[in-house]
Design brief:
16% strand, 3-stranded antiparallel sheet, 4-stranded mixed sheet, 10 strands, 44% helix
């Protein structure tokens, strides 16, 4: 029985019975594991370990693949929204049994062939679906993240049969953003036509953004407390003494109250604080 459990584990904790039979296990052995409660049956022809990933179990039960932002997040990519699950279904599927009524179903024809029995979409499918599903900024942040992680290349993406929305994302995508926040910040200020550099080292510390030559923008997260906060204040003071101007904003301001951030930056630029004094 241990060998069977190991085989299921190697397949992500959820496996097609046919795949297990191909590995040499008998139907009797599989049925015995189910009878003993060692395996569960999410759907006819499938088995799962009792502690299997619930997302994979749900995908097997519904006969779909995890895709779009759900797949991107599971790959460790930067995703702006944490929404209900996104799944891909064959265009020929007539009906689905979905436990979560908020699940977003993508019926599009995949650009990357889906292996029979796959429960998670390929990276190319996920990115193309993201481009057609998410707002432009959110989609670009995911694509930049995938390029930065080396999961895809722009050349590979350019060869795909992309629709206009995905082609627009590709035209702007770069591998240089460490987080989607950098992508969003830079693209929202692109109209200024000023150099905007992310994660620049100044005085042996990184600053989040440097606009022009002297305007520093720092983004405070939940970790900016205690010792970290004291170090940030000291670094701000050192930057000021060297002629830099520092603006501190929060993640929430960037995402939810952008007008506040933009107003601060425009007023600083109007005073020439992005240039050497």
């Amino acid at each position: 029985m241990t060998g069977l459990i190991d085989a299921v584990t190697r397949q992500g904790g959820v496996a097609r019975v046919r795949a297990l039979l191909d590995e040499g296990f008998s139907r009797l052995t599989v049925a015995g594991a189910v009878a003993e409660g060692i395996l569960t049956v999410p759907r006819r022809g499938w088995v799962a370990g009792v502690d299997a990933d619930p997302y994979l179990v749900a995908a097997a039960r519904a006969g779909v693949v995890l895709t779009c932002v759900t797949r991107a997040k599971r790959l460790g990519l930067w995703v702006l929204t944490d929404e209900a699950p996104h799944v891909g279904a064959p265009p020929s599927a007539s009906r689905l049994s979905l436990q979560n009524p908020m699940t977003k179903v993508h019926w599009s024809v995949p650009v990357q062939p889906r292996e029979p029995g796959a429960l998670e979409d390929g990276i190319l499918n996920a990115l193309v679906i993201v481009a057609g599903c998410q707002p432009y900024e959110a989609a670009l942040a995911v694509w930049d993240s995938a390029l930065n992680r080396g999961l895809v290349t722009t050349m590979e993406l350019a060869r795909l049969p992309l629709r206009p929305a995905a082609r627009r994302v590709l035209d702007a995508a770069t591998p240089f953003s460490d987080s989607g926040l950098e992508t969003i910040f830079a693209i929202r200020l692109k109209w200024l036509r000023l150099p905007i550099r992310a994660q620049i080292w100044i005085l042996e510390h990184r600053v989040d953004f440097l606009i022009g030559e002297r305007l520093v923008v720092q983004i405070d997260g939940g970790h900016h407390v205690g010792l970290q906060r004291a170090q940030d204040v000291a670094h701000d003071a050192a930057l000021t003494l060297l002629g830099y101007h520092v603006i501190r904003v929060t993640y929430a301001q960037i995402i939810d109250r952008w007008h506040e951030v933009q107003e601060l930056i425009m007023r600083a630029i109007a005073q020439g604080l992005d240039r050497p004094r």
